[in-house]
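Notes from hallway chat w/ T.B., transcribed later so I don't forget. T.B. wanted the structure written out for a chain they're using in a teaching module, and asked if we could keep both sequence and structure tokens in one place. Agreed to drop them here.
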Amino acid sequence: MKKLLRARIAPLVLTASFAFMPLSLVSDALSPLASDNFAGKRWKAEYRTPLSDGEISFQWLGTAGFRVQKGDTVILIDPYLTRVPLHELFIAPLRPNERLIREKIPRADFIFVTDSHFDHFMDVPAIALRTGAKVVGSTTTAKLLRIHGVSERQIVEARGGETLRAGPFTVRVARARHGTILVVKPFLYDVDARSRPPLYVWEYGNLQNLCFHFESGGYRFFATSGVEIDERDAKGFESDLAMVNVTVFEPGSAGRMAALTKPKVIMPTHYDNYFNPLENGVVPFPFATIGVIGELERSAPGAQVVTLDFFQEYRATCEQR
């Protein structure tokens, strides 16, 4: 009965929570008028040489997703490329775009999942099953991986407070809190282990967000999709680069993340309309991001706000401290 109620009510709840977002066709037109100038912060450099031993490469995959590489090690964070259209979100089970995923992500060694909702997790099982990558995530992430048949050898269940190793990276894990959308807490419940793929959007439950602090060769970077961190886990999370969720569901949340991590570079994430296909280019959600660039700059004085196009590369150089 509980599952039946969720199946009937959850679509209505999430639909209401997205009520402030115009449909994709409207948002494309409104975005330049009702969002920050993210394009004005676009990274200008182009790289024509192979990645050197002392460099780390960052590529934005859209939404909260990143591909990070150092040496031969490839790390993914919240890879979501399928981008289900809003009008299809509630009418059928969600199916990853396997062709696109194979094309854009030929290999991966580790996948870190901050949030087990569809827009962070949905493409993860397909990548893990094809590449054999280890996946680090919360209890609900681990349950979803098992539902999709991912091997236990690949699943690293984290609860916050752990220190892990991922190739050349030392990774610290902290608990984080998912934001509310207006007054709604979307799908913040456990996963039903009896579910079988393909899953409906409401079956991607999420009980605990995580954030990750990476360090290699003296270079530190931070990734989260949450709006608040458990500071008991996050002492010493100062970073050279911080990937910060900037969709303003809760005013001040992006600034708090910037103030906590004290980065030199801030990469805004999760501001694009992820119901649009990648080929439409980066279209910020209207109304959800007004004023956030200024908030970041005030909260981390001296930090450079950098935005990327989809799959555009940004490189950082490791300097031993």
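Follow-up for T.B.: The first strand starts at residue 55 and ends at 62. Might be a good example for the class.
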